[in-house]
């Protein structure tokens, strides 16, 4: 003891690393699980892997198989070229001018307003008639 402090050296446990399994190992373990009446837990014990991990491998294998079957059943028709006949574009008809003729007594007023500004013409007319 030096000055009231105790120096200790702790041994650290070696870090656990994740095991990496080859594709062949996974395929063999999954194939062993696909036999009738075989317990996934028993196969996992035999191959020394976690049963949940092996269940995931089996589920992934079955998902890939069903996706492959679905792709095989799908038929896509051959794309064909369909020619379209486009006629001459018809010009949009011009909007005729608005013509208003108002008579009050002996007075007559004629107004021409562009048809494209019909809303403004309506506003002007409402204000004028008040």
From TrEMBL:
Gene Ontology molecular function terms on file: sequence-specific DNA binding; transposase activity
Region (Disordered): 1-22
InterPro entries: Transposase_8 (IPR002514), Trp_repressor/repl_initiator (IPR010921), WH-like_DNA-bd_sf (IPR036388)
GO process annotations (BP): DNA transposition
Top-level taxon: Bacteria
Protein name per Swiss-Prot or TrEMBL: Transposase
């Amino acid at each position: 003891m030096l000055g009231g402090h105790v120096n200790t050296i702790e041994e650290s446990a070696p870090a656990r690393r994740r095991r990496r399994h080859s594709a062949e190992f996974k395929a063999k373990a999954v194939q062993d699980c696909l036999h009738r009446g075989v317990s996934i837990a028993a196969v996992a014990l035999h191959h020394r892997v976690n049963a949940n991990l092996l269940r995931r491998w089996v589920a992934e294998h079955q998902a890939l198989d069903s996706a492959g079957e679905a792709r095989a059943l799908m038929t896509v028709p051959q794309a064909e070229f369909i020619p379209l006949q486009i006629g001459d574009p018809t010009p949009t008809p011009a909007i005729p001018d608005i013509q208003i003729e108002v008579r009050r007594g002996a007075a007559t007023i004629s107004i021409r307003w562009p048809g494209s500004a019909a809303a403004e013409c309506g506003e002007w007319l409402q204000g004028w008639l008040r």
